[in-house]
Amino acid sequence: ATAQIGVTGLAVMGRNLARNLARNGFTVALHNRSPERTRSLVAEHGDEGTFVPTESLADFVAALERPRAVIIMVKAGGPTDAVIDELVPLLEEGDIIIDCGNAHFADTRRREEALRTKGLHFVGTGVSGGEEGALWGPSIMPGGSAESYRKLGPIFEKIAAQVDGEPCCQHVGPDGAGHFVKMVHNGIEYADMQLIAEAYDLLRAGLGATPSELAEIFREWNSGELESFLIEITADVLAHTDAATGEAFVDVVQDRAEQKGTGRWTVQIALDLGIPITGIAEATFARSLSGHVDQREAAVRAFPDSGEKWQVADREAFIEDVRRALLASKIVAYAQGFDQIRAGSAEYDWGIDLGGTATIWRGGCIIRARFLDRIKQAYDEQPDLPTLLVAPWFADTVRDGVPSWRRVVAESARVGVPAPAFASSLAYFDALRAQRLPAALIQGLRDNFGAHTYRRVDRDGSFHTLWATPDRAETPA
Ligand code: 6PG
């Protein structure tokens, strides 16, 4: 046995992770259900490091040093369970199975528990950064036992993206913590992308500019506070011309956003945890709305555009308004995502370090952004921060952005350009900072129709008003 780690499942992500491991000096055992993939990987990239190609799972397991570390990179759900079932009888106490796919954290918890009773470690690991990230340095979010991390840490930290000499990998917490954090990463990814898309749409409507002109605006934004991978590739996509038609690429793509489900999971779990991740939810619903073609067509027929053009008087001021609105809304999305991680960590007793999470996301992942440094700083300085919105830099930035944010949301509503994530983020901010919310009336209504009781501002305890009696006496409940 010579290999320090093995990868089974050599589609593009598994293949690239294996190459990254080998390039970084680790001997990597390879396995794939159909051996052609293993052979082509060795034929095309065998010179990048030391690979031990195998054609059966038994040979694959035999090639690994103990404790064995096996990365499985197959489809989430049934296929993952199938590979685990095949592997388990071949492994010995203390061996580690690492699931680097986008698994649901509840599945990861179930698998971890089942394998723990067999003396094996199961490490659900979030990996972000797409194909290029996997090859050159992803962001890695490992869950599982602290003991498994003693073996995996040095390997993962070496192949992860590095920012300021720090790896974008830390042990997130036990059992499903890594996949939970990856799930929320994807929820934030949905919000970030929806906000960028709304900014583009507003700029396009307001300025009447072409996509390639808009690409320049995003390129410029990428040299400021908004600097991030997603803004960078937005400029790239907007500047791209379709070879077949000569049209802007963004104009030949169908306007229906798809999803594989991680954003939806984030929202479902947020509902269970009672965490209002409104921006992420709005972004997820915006994707599903875009796919309801029949309803959209019917509404287009029923409510034709007035044809009125949006006249922006001061172009530079408008661009700056959209930039500030985008930044403020983005802060809301991250604040909500970190709230959800805190809540998940409390619910499952994971002890997740929020500053550490920001560290992992500084590089390699899809939502990598300059301001993750500031998030790290904010949570390092105050781990019990009630919300990221009130950390000094974020509070100042939002405060400075509020007039722009209001103008953009108000204008978008006036002219009828939908900006659901901008509007929802602003409403979230206003709700948080409201002295009094109309929730008091909701409590009154609940008590009126269902005797659901309410609490008073001036006395402890629960109360019920006898609504049906003439004197409407109040009773302690
Ligand atoms: C990443 C991404 C990745 C995800 C895609 C597609 O971090 O590298 O989050 O894991 O699968 O972004 O997600 P949707 O198909 O749901 O948009």
TrEMBL record:
It catalyses: 6-phospho-D-gluconate + NADP(+) = D-ribulose 5-phosphate + CO2 + NADPH. GO terms for molecular function: NADP binding; phosphogluconate dehydrogenase (decarboxylating) activity. Keywords: Gluconate utilization, NADP, Oxidoreductase, Pentose shunt. Substrate binds at N102, S128, G129, G130, H185, N186, Y190, K260, R287, R446, H452. Coiled coil: none annotated. NADP(+) binds at G9, L10, A11, V12, M13, G14, N32, R33, S34, V74, K75, A76, N102. Its EC number is 1.1.1.44. Residues 178-468 form the 6-phosphogluconate dehydrogenase C-terminal domain. Homodimer. This is 6-phosphogluconate dehydrogenase, decarboxylating.
